[in-house]
């Protein structure tokens, strides 16, 4: 019966929840991302295409648009995926914060696929948004890390992220695996609809199979971020800036820093800087610039140059050397935007971790926060 499962689950949780020599669970979970990503892809990603045992192809019949609802970190993975669903699957996609969606008297179309994303599967606002969509007769799909959770049970279909137990309150590997599942899903729908060429599909899958490599943490990278972090403990705050899928990554990088360091950080689309935020720029304002080689490099470069000219302290993360950077972290994957995304994600996670450790914070249990938000 159900009781037995719960007991077993608890004992499994205890045994797998050891820190294994890491200082914090969050640190361990950052390092685990490479191996859990292989679990996420197992039996789903093949050279010839994407396969989900959880889905049947007919499920997407008649679907003309996608709406995604989520909160917090899951919202950032949703936002990143909206670029992929439109670019790859060629399906109009809208993303909303669940707590906003619930109360706006949303207009819903039964030809919309309603997707919810949640690590725990118990997020109150996301669960309520899902119930609204179900009542309106929409097909529902959840992307979740916990099997048999409320959101999974409430959805027509569910894809599990297989990240394993995540103990750190600030989500790392759950975000990485959610983003991966969404990328895989965008390709799966593209296959069904033949919205991309077979060459494009083959190239995406080739990149996808390299993802675990892009998530490996080298000792030298971690040591460099540790050394660098001492400069970033005091200041007016942080801008994380990026374009395209690197804008949601900037939001996520800023959220990680806020959650565990308690320093003020904002994520912005790089092109929005001149519409107000650049007024804050001075030497005590730190800009973390996500500068991928494969996506709008010249544009972001010019945005960062503007900030530098106004004396902002620049930490540039890029495969390409940037002469105006006060600090520079060179990334090695420069052949595909998603590989750049995952590698830069790790850099931002380690940056938040190292700043917080220097400030003496309990990284795993940040003040005022809970692992899953089950209140509204």
Structure characteristics:
about 375 residues, 5-stranded parallel beta sheet, 13 helices, alpha/beta, Rossmann fold, single chain, 2 domains, disordered N terminus
Helix content: 40-55%
Q: State the domain count.
A: 2
Look at the helices and sheets and give the structural class.
Answer: alpha/beta
Estimate the global geometry from the Cα principal axes: globular
Strand order of the largest sheet: 4-3-5-6-7
What is the count of β-strands?
12
Question: Ranges with pLDDT <50 over ≥5 residues?
Answer: 1-11
**Would you identify the CATH H-level superfamily of the largest domain?**
Glucose-6-phosphate isomerase like protein, domain 1
The CATH architecture category of the largest domain equals 3-Layer(aba) Sandwich
Distance between the termini: 31 Å
Mean of all residue-level pLDDT scores = 94
Order of H and E elements: HHEEEHEHEHEHEHHHHEHEEHEEH
Strand content: 15-25%
Indicate the CATH topology of the largest domain. Rossmann fold
Q: Count every helix, treating DSSP H or I runs of 4 or more residues as helices.
A: 13
Summarize the structure in words.
The chain is 45% helix and 16% strand. The longest helix is centred in the last third of the chain and has 22 residues, at 337-358. The chain is globular. It is built from 13 helices and 12 strands. The protein has helices at residues 2-16, 25-41, 72-89, 98-101, 124-135, 150-154, 173-193, 198-209, 211-214, 219-229, 246-261, 297-309, 337-358, and strands at 45-46, 49-50, 65-70, 93-97, 112-118, 139-144, 157-160, 237-242, 265-269, 285-290, 313-318, 327-330. It is of the alpha/beta class and 376 residues long. The strands form 3 sheets. A 5-stranded parallel β-sheet has the order 4-3-5-6-7, sandwiched between helices. Strands 9-8-10-11-12 form a 5-stranded parallel β-sheet, with helices on both faces. Strands 1-2 form a two-stranded antiparallel ribbon. α11 runs parallel beside α13 (337-358). The protein folds into 2 domains: 19-212, Rossmann fold (3-Layer(aba) Sandwich), CATH 3.40.50.10490; 217-358, Glucose-6-phosphate isomerase like protein, domain 1 (Rossmann fold), CATH 3.40.50.
